[in-house]
């Protein structure tokens, strides 16, 4: 019964992917027929540059959404970091780029710490942070746009190792590949999914829930900062509202991505049932039982639980 259900899910997933690719190809052909300039190298390059910035910002937000939270400060953080690089690049050159990314990381870590330790919903924390950071952008820019005058910073985004593939696209591709490996092959990625599936069970499994949450928000801030830096370098200037239009897209796209990932990473039936049994047994143990036979049985159960945890985390 279960195997048949899983087979049906796989067939449905393959069908959805085939339909998506088909619709995508039809759209490309239609745009090429309606607008002959759509298929030109210049237009392909512009699409790649525009999408690469959004991809980087969305990757960071994906990990936050996977664990059941949301980060609405992406646009404000990106605007601040882009503006900061535009102001610092004449004096510091390329060194302004890591500074801008580190500032984004700090903003994200602060969001995570406030969310975790003050127990304020993430939507309120990040929305308040976005308002505050937007005010800081106005302060450091005096309400005007700043040009990025350093050629090395501009070349970082606008330059290209190949005619059709700009540097910004290569950077986003590398980050995407790293994010896939982190999500699939590292403890951080698995623990993020575990927290999003059931935070209580994740805590019973020994996951440092608060630490993972802060790390996810810090990663989101870091990648939002990098996205803002690349956007400023691509445009050649930084404006107060350059990332405002991308806020909804960068926050909404990971929602669909995370739903797809969660559907593929649902707990295995044995694992889920075993972990629920651990939770129930933990509650009964708190009431205490001094009977020797019960103590011996609990010891055996704990050994089984350890094996179950190893099974779930593989």
UniProtKB/TrEMBL annotation:
Cellular localisation: Cell membrane
Basic and acidic residues composition-biased segments: 282-304
Annotated TM spans: 20-41, 53-86, 92-116, 123-140, 160-182, 214-233
Recorded topology in the membrane: Multi-pass membrane protein
Ranges where the record places region Disordered: 279-304
Major location category of this protein: membrane
Entry annotated with the keyword Transport: no
Assigned keywords, A-Z: Cell membrane, Membrane, Transmembrane, Transmembrane helix
Entry protein name: Ribose transport system permease protein
Source species: Bradyrhizobium elkanii
């Amino acid at each position: 019964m279960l195997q048949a259900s899983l087979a049906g899910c796989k067939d449905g997933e393959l069908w959805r992917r085939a339909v998506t690719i088909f619709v995508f190809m039809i759209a490309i052909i239609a745009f090429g027929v309606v607008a002959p300039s759509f298929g030109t190298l210049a237009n392909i390059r512009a699409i790649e540059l525009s999408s690469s910035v959004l991809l980087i910002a969305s990757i960071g937000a994906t990990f936050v959404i996977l664990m059941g939270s949301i980060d609405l400060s992406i646009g404000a953080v990106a605007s601040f970091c882009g503006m900061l690089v535009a102001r610092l690049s004449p004096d510091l050159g390329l060194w302004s780029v890591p500074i801008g990314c580190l500032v984004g990381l700090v903003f994200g870590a602060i969001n995570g710490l406030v969310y975790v330790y003050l127990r304020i919903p993430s939507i309120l924390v990040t929305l308040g942070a976005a308002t505050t950071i937007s005010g800081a952008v106005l302060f450091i820019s005096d309400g005007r746009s700043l040009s990025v005058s350093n050629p090395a910073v501009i070349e970082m985004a606008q330059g290209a190792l190949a005619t059709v593939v700009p540097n910004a696209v290569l950077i986003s591709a590398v980050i995407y590949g790293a994010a896939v490996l982190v999500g699939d092959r590292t403890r951080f990625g698995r623990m993020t999914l575990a927290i999003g599936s059931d935070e209580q069970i994740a805590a019973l499994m020994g996951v440092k829930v608060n630490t993972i949450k802060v790390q996810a928000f810090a990663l989101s801030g870091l990648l939002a900062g990098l996205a803002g830096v690349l956007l400023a370098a691509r445009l050649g200037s930084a404006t107060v509202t350059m990332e405002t239009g991308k806020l909804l897209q960068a926050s909404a796209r990971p929602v669909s991505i995370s739903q797809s990932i969660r559907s593929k990473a649902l707990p295995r039936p044995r694992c889920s049932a075993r972990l629920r049994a651990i939770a129930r047994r933990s509650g009964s143990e708190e009431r205490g039982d001094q009977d020797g036979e019960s103590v011996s049985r609990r010891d055996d159960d704990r050994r089984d639980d350890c094996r179950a945890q190893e099974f779930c985390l593989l």
